[in-house]
Every structure is written in structure tokens, then in C-alpha cells.
Write a structure and sequence with these properties.
The strands form 2 sheets. This protein has an 8-stranded mixed sheet. An 8-stranded parallel sheet has the order 15-14-13-12-11-10-9-16. The protein is of the alpha/beta class.
């Protein structure tokens, strides 16, 4: 964090703070500070005779909390489009967490094991679960720690009789500043009044950040000490892409940010006009741009962004925060929504990609000491064939409603792929014996290349599957042995590291020799700076957050394939990451017409 302050009260303080930009856009406005109100959590030992009484208090608090959330869900139905649908899905998950989930069961067990009062048991169990989730390799799942804390504090407020302080009415051009804000409160903000959102905590994949993006709000989170520097009524500028906040700016800084806001709005209008244009290079090469999604509430953004399909549909949401597993019919209904709303565009459905620690209640599995390297993804599915059979059957049944593909996460060997093929063929035979209609031909079966070992064996794997999807997030993390969520080493996470580029190139070449499609669906795909690099490596299909599609399309339409190939070939001959990065920068500048 950088902060500069002057001594004279009459002089603008011009304090610059760095956070994490999560809601693209630029805002200038007056500060409104929201403080949720502190909750004191009592902690004391209880006798054995009081254990059941404390457990009953938790059960009643969970019921009361569920009623509160039901009220919020009724309000959510009046919110516009994707925002209301997203919030409704989230609140449904919250209600599931209050009905016999791992959190509630853990609290009840802790009361008996540690002989502590209900409030303390909730606090300790909430912290333990949140820490476990925050350590997950998958950034989206790691951000679920926020949801656990949101539910935990709701329980504590009910148990202590403490009300959450409601948001005060906001005036036009307000920048809301708080340590944190619930997703529900964020969804209820009016974009016509709020010029931006600044939080002291949070992450890019938190539901609060997702709500801010769906509303089109400039937002910066994880701004350390922001409440110590800001005062109600201060003028503040924020850049929701760069993650920059300037408190009490001088006139020149305000003018700069207002100019940047005007440029952002101009660019957004320009990108909006690209929706119905193809992602085609200057020399006529077509690239397929698709979207990564998890919830039906994201589909409006998928269509608005001009996506040519769903390149990655995550299915984890169906399994999270519930004491039981979703049945085949429930999964079919969930998948059918996406397939039908895509109107004939392809939908790639990834099978379950979580570790046993997140499904311990419903599967009876022990926590993994290292979830990133433990029983997760396809390993978990193969250890629980009932889970895999049900999911494959649901995808195959849903495939009758439109074009789908089946994607297997974290495949590391040909043996795993062969095992899944055998299960798949048996499921097909069983469905046909039941008289269930299936698509003809059957959905293609592909694998994610996320493990260096899979990339190095890509030639063998390509002969046994129908397509590749390169998951660059995990591929980079496993290749460089870096946890990007760890601030002490996060700066070493580098998508342009020579080893990463060579593994991508090796995979693309192997797919080409086997004549199967290959796409990239990690964060590299949605970075306009890296679009030319991936194009030069031979990647002709990219899947990303729907919001990034217009910017990537804009980049690709200004590039020439020959130029991208030439510069990427130069990069591949280098070993210095800084030199490689410099070439990537020149390629990005060229597409902007600067060279």
C-alpha cells in the first residue's frame, strides 16, 4: 500500500491507496462510510448438562436466519435481470448452509466436544472452515470463505440479538466505503446513485465482487486501512480496473479521473458495437470466443458479450453447501436451463472439480492435508463411481436439448481417461436400456490439460479423447510450484514463463497432429495482452469471463496472424521471462496502432 499525506489541512491530502480492482470502470464521488457494527462474541465453558440447550439455540438461530434469507430472496426477485437471478442462487445456497450443512453440524459437534457456548462454537467453526476454503487452489472456491463468514456472522447476530446496521439512503454520485459488504447489500445498490464501491476486504471472485460487476459498478476491494484514511464527505476517485483509490484528490487528479471515466465509457460503447462482429484477425483468421459460467444469472452477460457458446460450465455449485448429493433429475434440470438458453450454441460441461474436503458431509470423506494435490477433480469422481455415473448420465440426458460436450478436469494419465471411457460407455448402455433418448452422435468427451504431466503426454492423450481444453490457472500453478493466493510468492506467478509457454505449445501441436480441437479456458484466455501470444501459439478457441469477450475481440480484430506467429516464435526462442514479456507488450501495443 502506498499513502502520501500533507500536513496542511487546506491542501488536498491526495492519499493514494492500492487495492484489487474487481469492477471495471472509473468513478469520482463523495464518500459515504458504512459500518456494519461490531458484534461482541462471548465465550465461556458450559457444563455437560447445558450442551443440548446450546445446541438447540444454534438450531433455532439457523431457522431464524433462514427466515431472514427467505425475506431477502423475495426482494431479490424484483431486481433486474442477471443481478436478481445471481442473488437468488446465492441466497438459496445460504439457506442450504443453514439446513444441516457442514457448518451447522460442525458447530453442534464443537459444542459437545469443547463444551463452549453457541456463539463461540459458531465463531471457531466459521473461522476454521473459512481458512480451509481460503487455502483452496481454485480462486473461485477459495472466495467461498466470504460466504461462510457471512452466514457465520448472521448466526452470531441472531444468537446475540445484535442487528446488522442497514445501509443509509444514498445520494447521487456517492462512493460507498466499508470494511466489507454482504452480496445482498451490494445487489440492492442503485447504479444511478452509486459512483463506486471501495472495501477494505474481499477478493475478485467473492460474491460481493460478482454482484458489483453485474451492476456495472466500479469497485476496488482489499484496500488495506481505507477506513483509517477516509472521512465522510471526502471526494474520492477510484479505478476499478487498476485497483487505484485516491482520497481527497487535487483538481488535476480529479480532472484526470474524469477524463479516464469519459474514455472508459467511450471504449465501452465501442466494444458494445463489436457484439455481432466476428472475432477475426486483419488477415481473415476466425477465432472462437466462448464464455466460462457457473450460474444461470450469468447468461445475460454471455449473450450481451457476443459469446459463441459456453466453453466451460462449472457444475460445482450444485454440490456445494448441502448435506446430500444432487440426483440425476436435479442435475438434468440444472443443465437444461443453460443448454436451452444458449439457443443451439455449444455448451461444454465440466464434471465435478472439487476436493473431498468440500464434500466431507455428503461423501463421508476425510479432509485432505493438501487439497490442491489430493483427492480432487477426476480422481475424486473415479473414487466415487456413483458420483461419476450420475453426472455423466445427467449430461448425456441433457444433451438431447442442444449441442453439449463433456469435459473431464485434471486428467493426469491415460489410465484415468480409459477408466472414464469405460464408465461412460456403461452409462450410455444403461440409458439406452432404460429407453432414454440420447443425442446422435453422442456428446464429445474431452479433457482439461492442467497438470504438466498431462501436457507432456498430450500426444498419447489426444488419441484417446475428442478435444483438449487447457486450464492455464492450474497449469501455471503446478508448473511453477507457486500458490498465487500466497502474497509472499504471488508475484512469481507468471503466465509468460518459458516453461508454461512450452507446455501450451506442446499441447497445441499434439492436438493438431491428432486433428482434435484445443482451446484455452484459464485467465490467460481473457487477458487482451496475451491474446496475440495464444494466437501465435496456434490457439484458435478461447473461453473466458463473458465481460472480457469484447476486449479480447477488439484486440484480435486488430492483429494479423502472421505477425502474431512471428513474434511468438521469437518469444519461444528466449529463456528470459522479462524479455518474453517485453515482446508480448510490443505485440499488444501494435494492435493499438502504436508500432
Amino acid at each position: 500500500m502506498k499513502a502520501t499525506d500533507t500536513d496542511a489541512d487546506a491542501t488536498p491530502r491526495c492519499i493514494r491507496l492500492q487495492g484489487l480492482g474487481v469492477g471495471p470502470g472509473v468513478g469520482v464521488g463523495r464518500v459515504h462510510v458504512h459500518e456494519a457494527g461490531a458484534v461482541a462474541v462471548p465465550e465461556y465453558r458450559i457444563p455437560a448438562s447445558r450442551v443440548e440447550t446450546e445446541r438447540q439455540r444454534v438450531i433455532e438461530a439457523a431457522e431464524h436466519g433462514s427466515s431472514q434469507i427467505a425475506t431477502l430472496r423475495r426482494k431479490a426477485r424484483h431486481l433486474p435481470g442477471a443481478t436478481g437471478e445471481e442473488l437468488d442462487h446465492l441466497l438459496d445456497a445460504y439457506q442450504q448452509m443453514l439446513k444441516g450443512s457442514r457448518l451447522i453440524k460442525g458447530v453442534l459437534e464443537r459444542i459437545g466436544r469443547e463444551r463452549v457456548n453457541a456463539e463461540a462454537a459458531v465463531r471457531h467453526e466459521m473461522d476454521a472452515m473459512a481458512e480451509t476454503f481460503a487455502a483452496m487452489a481454485d480462486a473461485y472456491l477459495a472466495a467461498r470463505a466470504e460466504d461462510i463468514r457471512d452466514i457465520g456472522w448472521r448466526l452470531i447476530r441472531v444468537l446475540t440479538g445484535t442487528s446488522s446496521r442497514a445501509l443509509a439512503p444514498l445520494t447521487r454520485n456517492t462512493v460507498l466505503v466499508a470494511h466489507d459488504l454482504s452480496p445482498a447489500d451490494t445487489a440492492l445498490l442503485n447504479p444511478r446513485e452509486v459512483a463506486g464501491l471501495i472495501l477494505g476486504s474481499g477478493g475478485s471472485d467473492s460474491h460481493t465482487a460478482i454482484m458489483a460487476r453485474s451492476l456495472g459498478l466500479p469497485a476496488v476491494v482489499a484496500v488495506a486501512d481505507v477506513l483509517r484514511h477516509v472521512r465522510p464527505g471526502d471526494t474520492v476517485c477510484l479505478d476499478g480496473e487498476a485497483g487505484l483509490v485516491v482520497i481527497d484528490p487535487d483538481e488535476a487528479t480529479q480532472a484526470e479521473f474524469r477524463g479516464r471515466r469519459a474514455e472508459f465509457l467511450r471504449t465501452r460503447r465501442l466494444l458494445g458495437r463489436l457484439r455481432d462482429l466476428p472475432a477475426e484477425t486483419r488477415d481473415g483468421t476466425r477465432i472462437t470466443l466462448m464464455a466460462n459460467v457457473e450460474l444461470a444469472g450469468e447468461l445475460d452477460a454471455v449473450h450481451q458479450g457476443g459469446a459463441e457458446g459456453i466453453g466451460l460450465l462449472r457444475t460445482e455449485f450444485m454440490f456445494m453447501n448441502r448435506p446430500d448429493l444432487p440426483g440425476e433429475d436435479e442435475q438434468v434440470a440444472f443443465l437444461r436451463t443453460f443448454i436451452e438458453r444458449m439457443g443451439g450454441l455449444p455448451v461444454t460441461i465440466r464434471t465435478l472439480d472439487v476436493g473431498g474436503d468440500k464434500l466431507a458431509v455428503s461423501l463421508g470423506l476425510d479432509d485432505s492435508p493438501n487439497p490442491a494435490l489430493g483427492l480432487r477433480a477426476i480422481r475424486l469422481s473415479l473414487s466415487r463411481l456413483d458420483l461419476l455415473r450420475t453426472q455423466l448420465a445427467a449430461i448425456l440426458r441433457a444433451g438431447i436439448h442442444g449441442p453439449v460436450r463433456i469435459l473431464l478436469p485434471m486428467v493426469g494419465s491415460i489410465e484415468e481417461l480409459v477408466q472414464v471411457r469405460q464408465v461412460h460407455d456403461q452409462v450410455v448402455a444403461d440409458l439406452r436400456a432404460r429407453g432414454v433418448p440420447l443425442a446422435d452422435p453422442l456428446p464429445p468427451l474431452g479433457i482439461m490439460i492442467e497438470v504438466p504431466g498431462a501436457a507432456l503426454c498430450a500426444d498419447t492423450l489426444a488419441r484417446a479423447c475428442d478435444f483438449f481444453a487447457i486450464g492455464t490457472n492450474d497449469l501455471i500453478q503446478y508448473t511453477l510450484a507457486i500458490d498465487r493466493s500466497d502474497p509472499s510468492v504471488g508475484h512469481l506467478y507468471n503466465p509468460l514463463h518459458p516453461a508454461v509457454l512450452r507446455l501450451i505449445q506442446f499441447t497445441v501441436l499434439a492436438a493438431g497432429r491428432a486433428n482434435i480441437p484445443v482451446s484455452v479456458c484459464g485467465e490467460m484466455a481473457g487477458d487482451p495482452r496475451l491474446a496475440g501470444v495464444l494466437l501465435g501459439l496456434g490457439v484458435m478457441s478461447l473461453s473466458m469471463s463473458a465481460n472480457n469477450i469484447p476486449r479480447v475481440k477488439h484486440t484480435l480484430r486488430r492483429l494479423a496472424l502472421a505477425d502474431a506467429r512471428e513474434r511468438t516464435a521469437t518469444m519461444m526462442a528466449l529463456n528470459d521471462p522479462q524479455a518474453i514479456s517485453a515482446i508480448a507488450d510490443t505485440l499488444a501495443e501494435r494492435r493499438r496502432g502504436k508500432s
